[in-house]
Amino acid sequence: MAEFDYDLFVIGAGSGGVRASRVSAAYGAKVAVAEEYKVGGTCVIRGCVPKKMLVYGSHFAEDLHDAARYGWTLGETSFDWPTLRDNVQDDVARLEGLYTNTLDNNKVEIFRERATVSGPNEITLASGRTVTAKTILIATGAWPVVPDVPGAEHGITSNEVFHLETFPKRVVIAGAGYIANEFAGIFHALGSKVTVVNRSDQILRGYDEQIRDRLFQISTAKGIEFLFNVQFDNIEKKADGALTIHFKDHESLDADVLLFAIGRNPHSKGLGLETAGVELDEKGAIKVGDDNRTNIPSIYAVGDVTNRVQLTPVAIREGQAFADTVFGNKPHVVDYDCIPSAVFSNPPMAGVGLTERQAREQYGAVKIFTSDFRPMRNVLAGKAERSLYKLIVHAETDVVLGIHMISPDAPEILQAAAIAVKAKLTKAQFDDTVALHPSMAEELVLMK
Q1: 130-138 and 6-11 as β-strands: parallel, antiparallel, unpaired?
Q2: For residues 251-262, average pLDDT
């Protein structure tokens, strides 16, 4: 008889857990995965995928307005939230089915229930059943933070925002990171009065200052209100369901929805990790080495629960590296250098490599090249909104250290440009590349 029930037991069927499961099974391992909610994880079920669909839906508001300048007569238009909401959820269900099929096709056994670690090689399921595994992988992701203030239970997080019964006329968003700015753009475009409340004095900390300042200017011009250096006191729910939000240092606000977007903590609480002796940091993140192994030799972790880089493609890479290393006899580690990222705000931001501040701190003198222009589409539509592209270049070697953009389709353009930054190409090589005209992407090779 086998020493263990499974070669690998994965807790969490999100992007990292699914990749690790199917690849390990393909290598011949006997694999099981436990998921207490839906197969697909945060990104597919209640994160970047449904959010991007809402972004697409919100863009029609401006597109329909601009259509008249392009010769279209559309007549009266209206927006129906339940139609968008339900169509998005239908596609989420479709994707969950595809992820489930992937696991089934690779003969991965799925337990649709909560699982906790009860020993270095033991897992206890919510049903009470106990199973053993030679290797355990934790891939439970992260969870939205809710502030500890009276009445916080009346607010929602990004987990619930996709399921609103009715579309809110007034939305208050707590936080100023990427989730906050993305939903600010979505709700505003679809017709809500949006107020973004932040306890500090800046948005999108960690992104290039010049690019994030441009987003702030554009968002303000659109009508999104920002309150800085403001802290919550309590939230009061009225008889009609509306909210009155009280602050410590600002007058109160009335809202139909309060969305908390103040960060995400590793989802490690209640997993029994302390029982097995797994080390966590002060935020609850599972401590791992470059090989994704914890201090317990049989237990590994990948994705947001490790709080290294909270991005879906990174979790997938970590899941792949784990499977290759542990079951595929192809050991390797993830390279975290030059990871591209995007904010699907309106307009979107995208960046890769060092920001100007980071480059100056690391190298001293750097060269900065920018292109500040009005996209052709905006010109004909009569819109003043301008795009901004930025290249940070090493003063001595001419190597492009970073690219940062805010513009329609910036994320689509940046993916290819990120290859150039990763390959350490020079500004001269950008200049030597013939421009693709007319396009917004050509600005990357025309900066002088």
Answers
A1: parallel
A2: 97
Judge if pTM exceeds 0.70: yes
User: 3-class SS at 314?
Assistant: helix
98, two tokens: 């595809």
State the Cα–Cα distance between residues 407 and 247, nearest whole angstrom.
Answer: 34
Q: Where are the domains of the chain?
A: 6-143+265-326, 152-262, 347-445
d(CA 181, CA 196): 8
Provide CB contacts within 8 A for 412, sequence distance 6+: none
Report whether pLDDT(1) > 70. Answer: no
Q: Give the torsion sign (CA, 243, 244, 246, 252).
A: positive
Coil, strand, or helix at residue 445?
Answer: helix
CATH fold of 347-445: Enolase-like; domain 1 (3.30.390)
In sequence order, which residues have a C-beta less than 8 Å from that of residue 253 and are 6 or more positions away?
172, 195, 197, 244, 245, 247
* pLDDT tens digits, one per residue of 89-120: 999 999 999 999 999 999 999 999 999 999 99
Nearest to 389 by CA among 416, 371, 363, 375: 371
As given in the structure block, the two tokens for residue 65 are: 């307005």
Q: What string of DSSP letters covers 135-178? A: EEEE---EEE----STTGGGSB-TTTGGG-SS--SEEEEE--SH
Q: Please, is 59 exposed, middle or buried when counting C-beta atoms within 10 Å of its C-beta (0-12, 13-18, 19+)?
A: middle
**What would the two tokens of residue 217 be?**
């200017």
CATH (residue range 152-262): 3.50.50.60
Nearest to 40 by CA among 57, 17, 62, 56: 17
Asked if pLDDT for residue 2 goes beyond 80, the answer is: no
Active site residue 437: yes
CATH superfamily label, 6-143+265-326: FAD/NAD(P)-binding domain (3.50.50.60)
